[in-house]
Amino acid sequence: MPRPRELTVAVLVFPSFELLDVFGPLEVLGNRNLNPQPFRIRLVAERREPVRSAQGPAVYPDDTLDTVSAIGVLLVPGGIGTRAEVENGHLLEWIARRSEQAEFVCSVCTGAALLARSGVLDGRRATTNKRAFPWVEQLGPRVRWVREARWVEDGKFVTSSGVSAGIDMALALTARLVGLEAAETVARCMEYEWRNDPHHDPFAKVWGLV
User: Fold this and answer.
1) pLDDT of 57-78, one tens digit each?
2) Which residues contact 23 (CB under 8 A, 6 or more apart)?
3) Under a CB-based contact definition with an 8 Å cutoff, are residues 24 and 163 in contact?
4) How many whole angstroms separate alpha carbon 162 and alpha carbon 166?
5) Which residues are catalytically annotated?
6) 8 vs 78, 103, 114, CA distance in Å?
């Protein structure tokens, strides 16, 4: 059912996060054609200082892990920085705690590695970047990994494949929370061809997973 109230979307950023993993979904969730705005977007980091992406540009977080308020949607991006953050116990504990409290928990690309490592995906279906699939898979041996999927929904957890798949996932989340017509309007205004079939995943074959 569409939700009339505003949900806070907390987007985790960490050193060497993937730019499109963050700003692809935010182009959808923050789109001005969603009227009234159903999402309030906040960038969240461990410290209130610029966080540099894998591509170079840095962002300035709105909140820290300690100051962010109630979270409606937790969005965890991927990027080369996840290789270090899977050993960051403080961050993993925060992800586990805030995932329990959030209404929805989403990941893009290797962001699923952080969710898996924190334990919140245990027993759930999930997917991730297909090139990095073997690495992410071994971090979550209790996760029911789906090798061929653009994105996977399991209750309040929504995980997507590599980078651009996050846009499709965000449109699917918009359809789920606001309505299909709203999601289609956003995609049209973005001049984006929405891959709205979660099973459409040619990259699983490219990387030898199926």
Assistant:
1) 999 999 999 999 999 999 999 9
2) none
3) yes
4) 7
5) 109
6) 20, 10, 20
Q: Enumerate helices (H) and strands (E) in the chain, giving the number of each.
A: 8, 11
Of residues 81 and 1, more confidence is placed in 81
Q: How many CA atoms lie within 13 A of 169 on its CB side?
A: 38
- Average pLDDT on 154-167 reads 98
Contact 105, 126 (CB under 8 A): no
3-state secondary structure of 74: strand
Q: What percentage of the chain carries pLDDT values higher than 70?
A: 98
Whole-Å CA distances, 210 to 47, 126, 133, 164, 206: 41, 16, 12, 20, 9
AA letter at 21:
D
Query: Closest Cα partner for 151 from 25, 33, 43, 32?
Result: 25
Residue 4 has pLDDT above 60, yes or no: no
Nearest alpha-carbon partner for 117 in 128, 101, 103, 131: 128
pLDDT at position 6: 87
Residue 133 in contact with residue 207, Cβ under 8 Å? yes
What is d(CA 198, CA 196) in angstroms, rounded to the nearest whole number? 6
